[in-house]
Design goal:
It is built from 8 helices and 11 strands. It is of the alpha+beta class. Helix 2 runs parallel beside helix 3 and helix 6 crosses helix 7. The chain is globular, with a radius of gyration of 19 Å.
Amino acid sequence: MLPLVRAIECVPNVSEGRHPLVIDRIVGAVATTRGVRLLDRSSDRDHHRTVLTMVGDAPALEAGVLAMMEAAVRLIDLRRHHGVHPRLGAVDVVPFVPLGEATMAECASLARTVAAEAARRLALPAFLYEEAALMPGRQRLEQLRRGQFEGLPAKMQDPAWRPDFGPAQPHATAGATVFGARDLLVAYNINLDTNQLEIARQIAAAIRESNGGLAHVKAMGVPLAERRIVQVSMNLTNFRVTSPSRVFARVRAEAEARGTRILESEIVGLIPADALADTTFEALKLPPTTSERILETRLEAAGYRW
């Protein structure tokens, strides 16, 4: 009998997606940490970003995240980093997510502990967001990330933007890292049959919650230069309210109104099975390999019973 899930998921986003040897060394720091199960790694060259998904208990995840961050800070120089995804640091964001009987309070406490230790070891500014936030106005990741790595020196001169832990100026090559606790989300991208970036940006603006669009949807339009197409890149922060199928239908309508169509969609990282309960891979133009991205399947393979 597999044990009931009482684990914490951690989904670090690392600002490196183009150099396999560098990615392997960063991932290796996690994979060799005792007690951490690495469930997935997803890299994208255009976004220049790698998303890791790991599970474990709090002590194991603390050790794994710190080992991963030490490798990333040593190997990544953001002064030479250019991708379409916004980023604040070499390790951009480190969210902790409760699974099963684990609690949000445990995840918030872990985020604060790891942030403080990373700041101490690496001389790296650390900010807290979502359920781990300690300061008003820092709940939303996009607020912390505004201005990106390049804008950090000026931003951090403002006392209102002092970090929660660490030095009052950015790390020269690794910027700063945001740590937090949040619920499960779906990282969902839709690729369009056009190279017109303005169309993707218009659609993203139309569907994002902050503009009065779909609830719990964050969206941006980005170019995929190597394929000469554009993408609507999204985070669905409550898939039970706004599912991928609902987002797909809205994006399709917005695309058709602008004279284009959806080529395909993709999941980044892992997705809970419930998020796809009302649809099929084919209906969302997801590849058949999406079956390998179901969170519960990966958890069972790692020895957990959902």
